[in-house]
Amino acid sequence: MHRIIKEKLPRHIAVIMDGNGRWAKKNMLKRGMGHERGAESVRTVVKTCRELGIQYLTLYAFSVENWQRPKSEVRALISLLETYLKSELVEMKETGIRLFTIGDTEKLPKTVRDLLFRAMEETSGNSGMVLNLALSYGGRDEIISAVQGILRDAKLSNIDEKTITKDVFSQYLYTADMPDPDLLIRTSGEYRLSNFLLWQMAYTELYFTDVLWPDFSKDELIEAIVDYQRRERRFGLVSDQLSKD
Ligand code: FPP
Fold first, then answer.
1. Which residues of the chain have pLDDT under 50?
2. Dmax over Cα atoms in the chain, in whole Å?
3. Which long-range contacts (CB under 8 A, 24 or more apart) does 166-172 make?
4. Residue 245's pLDDT is what?
5. Residue 40 has what DSSP assignment?
6. Is ligand 1 within 6 A of the CB of residue 211?
7. Hey, whose CA ends up nearest to atom 1 of ligand 1?
8. Which H/E stretch holds residue 34?
């Protein structure tokens, strides 16, 4: 933890938690065990981010594409999510974590939705860290739903097309009012965005590691943050312009 510069922490970290299946195979276990161990890494990363003072943590827990996995695996993932929501609520309350969710949550079974909304409600007054779970999430779906929202509002009141700026558009996304991610971490040696936060990651620093998600530890997280802190974020400007600020 000492290697991290407190003043240069990423405000928002997003994570594509990949490699649970390969971890299980490598350890001659069933895929479900990989997800179970993956849920342990979730606990570790949430706890560490909270301790470090990260303000927003977005985890890609279930994509829209994941619905197409074998039914038994979808069930196992949903059930892990239920277990997680039940077991972590007390800790979230104690540590000041505010739960939030992005995605087409209407598609989730009612039991999960009830648990989610209860946890969101009960943690809504917390200001320590926003834990944002991407569930039934797809970046392209999110953009389309933003366009639909704008068109709906346009029908209700006469919106001048010129008023649709980047800031206005952002307000129609699931992540309205959240800062864009500063750092994206993807595990398991895959170099893709996989339909995750497509609009929001325009200037996000990308960090890829070969470590499989169930093996992703506190030290790995710190390594990713230290790597991020070594980078110069220019947002399309040149170095000199940044140092003048
Ligand atoms: C990718 O591994 C991971 C997922 C599809 C889901 C992520 C879920 C968890 C980490 C566990 C539950 C989450 C919470 C929030 C409690 P993969 O199955 O695609 O791995 P593979 O590419 O090696 O097959």
1. 245
2. 61
3. 169/199, 170/199, 172/145, 172/146, 172/147
4. 47
5. H
6. no
7. 18
8. helix 31-52
Q: Which amino acid is at 216?
A: F
- Asked if 206 contacts 37 with a C-beta cutoff of 8 angstroms, the reply is no
Instruction: Please work out whether the CB of residue 50 comes within 6 Å of at least one atom of ligand 1.
Output: no
* Domain 9-137+180-244, architecture per CATH: 3-Layer(aba) Sandwich (3.40)
Strand extents, DSSP E, the chain: 12-16, 56-63, 97-102, 129-137, 183-186, 205-208
What does the alpha-carbon distance between residue 199 and residue 192 come to, in Å, rounded to a whole number?
15
What distance in angstroms lies between residue 39's CA and the mean position of ligand 1's atoms?
8
126 is catalytic: no
Cβ(60)–Cβ(233) below 8 Å: no
In this prediction, residue 234 carries a pLDDT of 78
Q: Residue 180 in contact with residue 206, Cβ under 8 Å?
A: no
18 assigned to active site: yes
pLDDT of residue 68: 97
CA dist 193 and 182 (Å) reads 15
Atom of ligand 1 at shortest range from CA of 23: 23
| Number of residues assigned to the chain | 245
217, with CB counted inside 10 A (0-12, 13-18, 19+), is middle
Q: How far apart are CA 128 and CA 50, in angstroms?
A: 7
pLDDT score, position 61: 98
Catalytic residue among 18, 20, 132, 182: 18
Q: Is 183 in the pocket of ligand 1 (CB under 6 A)?
A: no
3 state DSSP class of 84: helix
The ranges assigned to domains in the chain are 9-137+180-244
